[in-house]
Amino acid sequence: MARDVLWMFLKCFGNAAIVLLVAPLCHGVMRRITARIQSRQGPPLLQPYMDLLKLLGKEDIESGESPVMQRLAAYLAMSSALVVACLVPMGVASPMSRAADVIVLIYLLALCGICTLFAGLAAGSTYSLIGISREMMTMIALEPLLVIALVIGAIHMRSFQLDRVLGGSVYAIGGVPWSGLIILVVMIFAFQAFVQRVPFDTAEAETEIMEGPLMEYSGPKLALFKYAQMCRLVIHCALFVSLFVPFGSTLPFPFGWLVFWMKIFVLILAVTLVAATHARYRIDQAIRYFAAMMVVAFGALVLASFGM
Questions:
Q1: Alpha-carbon distance 118 to 111, whole Å?
Q2: How far apart are CA 203 and CA 211, in angstroms?
Q3: What is the DSSP code string of the chain?
Q4: Could you report the per-residue pLDDT of 168-223, keeping only the tens digit for each?
Q5: By C-alpha distance, which of 244, 202, 257 is closest to 91?
Q6: What is the pLDDT of residues 39-81, one digit of tens each?
Q7: Residues 6+ apart with CB under 8 A from 11
Q8: Residue 41 CB: number of other CB atoms within 10 A?
Q9: Assuming Cys at both sites, which of 182, 216, 262, 291 could form a disulfide with 123, CB separation 3.0 to 4.6 Å?
Q10: Model pTM greater than 0.85?
Q11: Beta bridge partner(s), residue 101
Q12: Comparing C-alpha atoms, which of 38, 105, 52, 72 is closest to residue 230?
């Protein structure tokens, strides 16, 4: 028993370490590709690592209304992202899939966004309050889409266990999996919003409200928030691959692991291309878009309940 627990902790540490190492690199790739599309040279590929180190080395200035809440939000945002990284497969089986279920995963993913709301509320500035109002509206309209996708997988598998749901469960019925295919299309069209990239980065909106909820942050706390956002990009990509594109995951190591990260790279490339070629939506446009996706997602949920 002690050996099993130690092995689980080692695998959790491996998952978290991979996400921490790869997340800034993915962000650097996105910035580099965006610059090429826009006919710019762009920053070095490793610039995100240097930016994080620079922020971590700066003085921790606290200018908000509630410094304790600001610190708590920063630490909680990073820690919740790392816990989710231990629940989602990263090319190998999830090390904590039997320690939690789909409901816990949903709560932790929501907590990542709630930390941003806490951060903006603790800062107390006008720009921060505008940012958290947009973030809250986006979360209310967007998060149910991911919940429906996970619930459809749970319905098909008749189980909420993560190791069963995060394995292409949306297709796990006899015949044509209409509900799985429909929710796949919904998640493809909504994925840009889950990773908070243009045209759905309305809460951040640098050209309008200057970093939104994080307006009053600098130094180490800003580094933690930025790092958590980078990690969430990798986590959402891994979650999408596990739910909808699990093909090749059964290959022996390291082939299955390499196939997994190739799919992650393709997703990041697609996100970058969309972000570099589209203008930002207004918040009302984004909410109407999510409402349309919600109607289609509920249709997929109804089909799943009838075994379709």
A1: 10
A2: 8
A3: -HHHHHHHHHHHHHHHHHHHHHHHHHHHHHHHHHHHHTT-----TTHHHHHHHHHHTS-----SS-HHHHHHHHHHHHHHHHHHHHHS-SSS--TTTTT-BHHHHHHHHHHHHHHHHHHHHHH--HHHHHHHHHHHHHHHHHHHHHHHHHHHHHHHHT--BHHHHTTTGGG-SSS--HHHHHHHHHHHHHHHHHTT-TTS-TTT-HHHHTTGGGTT--HHHHHHHHHHHHHHHHHHHHHHHHHH--TTTTSPTTHHHHHHHHHHHHHHHHHHHHHHHSPPPPHHHHHHHHHHHHHHHHHHHHHHHTT-
A4: 888 888 778 899 999 999 999 999 999 988 888 776 655 555 566 787 788 899 89
A5: 257
A6: 888 889 999 999 999 999 888 877 777 788 888 889 999 999 9
A7: 92, 95
A8: 8
A9: 216
A10: yes
A11: 161
A12: 52
CA 189 distance to own-chain centroid? 15
Backbone angle region of 210, left / alpha / beta, with phi > 0 → left and psi within -120 to 50 → alpha = left
Task: Say which amino acid occupies 279.
Answer: A
User: Hey, how many other C-beta atoms are within 10 angstroms of the C-beta on 122?
Assistant: 24
